[in-house]
Queue: 2 jobs
Job 1
Amino acid sequence: PEGAPAPVFENADEEWQAGEPLLARVRPVRPAERATHVHGRSYAILDHTRASEDERHDTFGRVGGGLVLENPFGRGDRLHADAEWNYRHVDVPDADDEEDVELRLERLSYATGGSRFEHEGLEVGRFLQQGMAEFGVLDGAEWVFRLPSGHRYGASIGLLPELDQEFQTGSDLQVAAFYRWVADQSEELSASAGYQKTFHNGAADRDLVVANVSRMPRAGWTLFGTAWLDFYTDGDDEKGTLAGLTQAYVSTGRRWQSGSTFDVVYSHMEFPEIERNEFLPVDDAQLADDHSERLGLTSRLQLARDLRMLTGVGGWIDEDEGGGDAEFGFELRDFLVERGFADMQGFVTRGRFQTSAGGRLSTGLFTANGRWAFDYEFSQNRLDGFSSANDDLPQHRVRFSRDHAWTNWDLSWRLEGLVYDDEHALTVGLYLQRSHY
């Protein structure tokens, strides 16, 4: 109240100096000093599709969750567990139905160290590798060391689960090492490289080098690039070279404080010659020749506070021929009402056997606990090589969705319809998640 004496604070923070961070003189709590804490999430996903063509039915369900136990043994350590149960049923008249049930253990690991107080970290069990995520999920151990400068290096050894619905393990052994360089503590500019050697059923298999570079300031020019280089031996007859560029992705562009952006993206992919069951079976000709190259340009121009223009153009080539695509549209915020939105795009694509042109509209409203959305897309598809009776295929997609969020629950549901030629399909989707603290 007016006239009352000013409050007197017992802690005057006399050691704090102007210009320092607010908590510069506060001693942080070490991980080992924190109480044991459990947190995680659980979720359920259900999609059901019914199509008029032969009265097809497709049901896909997923139930899973993840759990993290922090500081269980008073060493600043962590226990991680993630698992998922999948159910799939496809009902096709006049053919054998398909039904499959799988339980996947996504992660089960124990980790210690690796914080700003402990530069050395170790993780054992099943987990996605931290040093080079490109090397995949590992059943084994990874050691990582962080230097005071922020540079990191490490190594890992263990088995690689197969990339299928069962995540089976035991056929592929890997050893790997990596090094990551950073320009300063902000890590806006960084570069890393790693080497992975694999053995399939005890025989030497893949020699892979992965290199990355990244520059990600808040504004200005950005750059991200990654390259996967496979080295081959005399036994890899289809490649016939010492090394091959299996994957490459380069993205560079500009960010402005106004919100406008411009990006150029290039990608390259081809099959590596390996024994590990990582892809569907491919023949010798595909190993030797199949590849895909794409170059795309996208921009987002902030015309006003609530209006943004989008443009995009791209082209691709593969072992047979090429194609392209283009897109143009607008994003509007506070459309008609406060917190309303509307996105409108027109597009055209040209492929080897099909040319498509159309447009899409998304509109809705952000609410205090989620959003409503309505989406509509129309495309006219011209199919090459068919008779005049079925070479034009118009397609309509309509979707109505709702996202809810309250306390530690999230719920999303959608109703989606598809009309194409004389057929139609209806999909109902549900996603429910609960966070545990």
Job 2
Amino acid sequence: MTKEYYLEEKGIYYRMNEFNPERLTLVFAHGASGSSSAWIPYEKIFENKYNILFYDIRGHGKSKKYPNYEDYAVKNFTTELHDLITYLKIEKFILISNSFACLIHLEYLKQYPGTIIANVFTSPEIYLTNGLWVKIIRAFLKLTIILKLIPFNPKIKGQINYTKHIGSTDWDISRNLADIRNTGLHAHFYTLRQSFLPSNEYSFEQINIPTLIVHGEKDSMIPIKNSILLAKKIKNSQFVSIPNVDHNTVHNGVKIISEAMESFIEKNKARFS
């Protein structure tokens, strides 16, 4: 059973079960505007099999909110994750990231090589650098500069109960509004803007640890072809597509994702010892 904690000096909320040194450690990072509550179904599936750690990224859920656009640079998210990993004295772990958190994941691989022993990317926000629609969204998100005129509210509102939104689509208004209300305008739009910046150069071909990539076939936000290309670039990676699911793979593809993860871990277990 997991327990809740708060790392006061860093403003990070997290949940974990009782760690057993004989078990593998799984760390779960959620996407933009969400919270670690998105992973609750996986918590129930994996809590008796692995050491599991869930946390709210900065500005989200029960973690500290920050007022400025610069606060939400990907490197800041990455440093914060490393601070948590260091505090908990976790030496090796499998990182499971969703959507925007995949950018944090990639930066972590780059900044702290050797600590992640396997990658799981779900609906990764990667290759958001081309296409007219991306340019239009980037131009629109530059308007976030007007948020400086809006009073910043540092109040932490908590987490979303995603069981109320099972089956919701990419553009479901009620779920998106619930996320925005919970996260707040500043954290929501500043993080979103970061996700659409041209990605840093990552040497995907040099990633040599086991990698699982999962993507919904009906994703209308991040084309599935991006993940297919990513899988081709990463050596010995495994790609799983989820039929009839869009960008909300974590919420709507629990069974397929959890089974794919367990199969992936078992297949590569010898490499983790």
